[in-house]
Each structure stands twice: as C-alpha cells, then as structure tokens.
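=== RUN LOG ===
request id: a7f3
mode: sequence -> structure
chains: 1
length: 179
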Amino acid sequence: MDSDMKVIGLAGWSGAGKTTLLTLLIPHFVAQGLRVSTIKHAHHNFDVDVPGKDSWLHRQSGASEVMISSSRRWALMHELRGDDEPPLAELLRKMSPADLVIVEGFKAVPHRKIEVHRAANGKALLFPDDPGIAGIAADVSVETTLPVAHLDDIVAIATLIERLAMPIADVLAGLNRER
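=== RESULT ===
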C-alpha cells in the first residue's frame, strides 16, 4: 500500500451521474500525470467475465479466485461463496499503489465523499444526514456551507477532489474505528 495514496468517495443516488462524472474526471487527472484507480460498489450480482468463456467456467466450477491475464491487462476475481462482503478498508488495502483512489458508491460507509446530485432524479440530498460528505457536485444551487461545484464543471470538481481527498492511512484509521 502506497502511503502517498489519497482516497475520496463519490456518493449519490442511482441515476445521479456518478459513473459519467468518473469517466470525465479520470482522463482529467491522468492528463495531469496522476495514476488513478477506482473501487465501484455494486449492489447486485454482477459479472466481469463472459458466460461460457474459460474464466467464467472456472468460477462457475467453484474456484475462489480466478485471475485472467493477457498482454494488455489482468484481472482478479474473488468469489465470496457465501462469505460476507469485505469492508471498504479491506478492499482499499488490496489496491495497487496509485496517486488517487476514487470510491464510487459505498454511500453508507463513513469515509470522506463528494455527493453527486442531479435534480431530475427527484431524490433528497444525502449531505444533511451523512457527515462524511465534504463537498457537493450538483446541477442545481444547494444551500450549504460545504463547497459546491456545478456537475458540468469538471475542473472545479477535480479541484474539490484534490483538496478533499485524504491520505489512505487516515481513511483506514477512520474506517477501522467504525468497525
């Protein structure tokens, strides 16, 4: 684990635009020379390999972990096989060194986050009830003392992230206190 690694979360209701925002933020940070990694929380059963392919067959056969490797990338899948979902702290410890890890989702976990809010979603803002929210990216004006950036202003949101991201050691210490 890289002690210089910083962590920030993006939290918001489904449909708020978290993934879209990430796909705009990542190239912005990479263009600045930063190495960016992400952790995405999924609420449902999901697959990263294709049914019928070898890796899928290995997993379906009962393998606990399946690594796929090629000349372009490698991926490691770990099947929980009935075990509890690992906490965010454990997942962060498994990450390779990076300058910035952006956590998408895990909105119930008490780590520092930027709320992504889209008015058309018709959902309430999370920040009044989530002390982990340190900034907001929204497509409407928000009454708050927290820093706010417009959802379309990638540079302003990136600046918020750079200012609010925490060293991984501090994030892990906070998450471990919550257990």
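=== NOTES ===
The first strand starts at residue 6 and ends at 11.
The mean pLDDT is 91.
=== END ===
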